[in-house]
Amino acid sequence: MPDVLTVVARIYPKPGCEDQLEAILIKQAEAVRKAEPDCIVYRPHRSAKEPVVFLFYEQYRSAAAFEFHRTAPHLAAFQEQRKGLVARAVEVEIYRSLTD
After folding, report:
1. Which stretches of the chain drop beneath a pLDDT of 70?
2. In a 10 Å sphere around its CB, with 0-12 CB exposed, 13-18 middle and 19+ buried, how is residue 31 labelled?
3. What gap in Å lies between CA 31 and CA 26, rounded to an integer?
4. DSSP-H helix ranges across the chain
5. Which class is domain 5-96?
6. DSSP category for residue 20
């Protein structure tokens, strides 16, 4: 699937907000999986080495599927909930699949 987009996003919570942010990220992942059929993988992780770092690994069938995700109302609601819990902007890297 050469059109597949892989997204890696790092989220850094404010000190003391880690567990609250984790709970929101888990709910966010559940909502995305239910509402976005062209999202292949949407999985939050918490660093084993640095438990104050969260990482999302995401895959979308196409650029259009990723655009739908970026503008989805359910995602906006979770972004609003996260606002006061994060220390800095989310770091996002986007990759395109080279092979099927």
Report:
1. 1-2, 100
2. middle
3. 9
4. 18-35, 63-71, 73-82
5. alpha beta
6. H
Domain residues of the chain, as ranges? Answer: 5-96
Tokens matching residue 56: 């999302």
Tokens of 71: 């503008």
Task: Name the residue type at position 12.
Answer: Y
Give this prediction's pTM: 0.88
User: Which pLDDT belongs to residue 3?
Assistant: 83
Cα dihedral 63, 12, 52, 15 in deg (nearest 10): -160
Long-range contacts of 17-24 (CB under 8 A, 24+ apart): 17/84, 17/85, 17/86, 18/51, 18/52, 20/85, 21/54, 21/82, 21/85, 21/86, 22/46, 22/54, 24/78, 24/81, 24/82, 24/85
Using DSSP, state whether 61 is helix, strand or coil. coil
